[in-house]
Design a protein that fits this description.
This protein has 238 residues and is of the alpha/beta class. It has eight helices and eleven strands.
Amino acid sequence: MTDLKYKRILLKLSGEALGTQSGFGIDVSEAESIASRIKDVHALGVQVAVVIGAGNLWRGKQGLDRGMDRATADYMGMLGTVMNALVLMDALERQGVYTRVQSAIEMRAVAEPYIRRRAIRHLEKGRVVIFSAGTGNPYFSTDTAAALRGTELDVDVLIKATKVDGVYDADPKKNPEAQKFEELKYIEVINRRLEVMDSTAITLCMENNLPIMVLNLWDKQALFSALKGEKVGTLVHD
């Protein structure tokens, strides 16, 4: 593990990463695929924490467009993240990786309550920890939850897993001339309104000097290269 630049990481996954081809629902094979990548990194001795979204199960905007109360819509999303966390936990444990799910909303029958010191202890003992239910508060995204947990756990880097190989100045699927950034400053992300993470999450990372690595998790070499400190994806830092 001595040749690794990052030894404790927080992996931010969107709910869509677990989705079916339509983007909705849960595809167990996708969960198994992600679990295998986490297992490979974990086997190197890296301490791995995960924050997961729920876009594959519920998108609050749908409710808001019909007049739903914002807090209610957000709480529904938090519950969706717990379901995704349990699916990923099951996939990891079937591959022999000890895993704990912690929830910011107390539901002791299915998950531990979030306790910072307990989470750190799990990581030190070699367990993967999956954080669910966001921050436990409405009006905050799972991006912000990832920035918060990463800061609390003193991780070396927050890795935003996407299906593209970094941050571009335009959508590379729509614009073949889009330029990829190798590095960005936090304030550039905010000023350019680049869709890395929401502004609250970026600001929290900036204030606590937590670097953000945006990479393609589905590229089998990208994560390993990033852990070694090689140039891959896009690095957001000071």
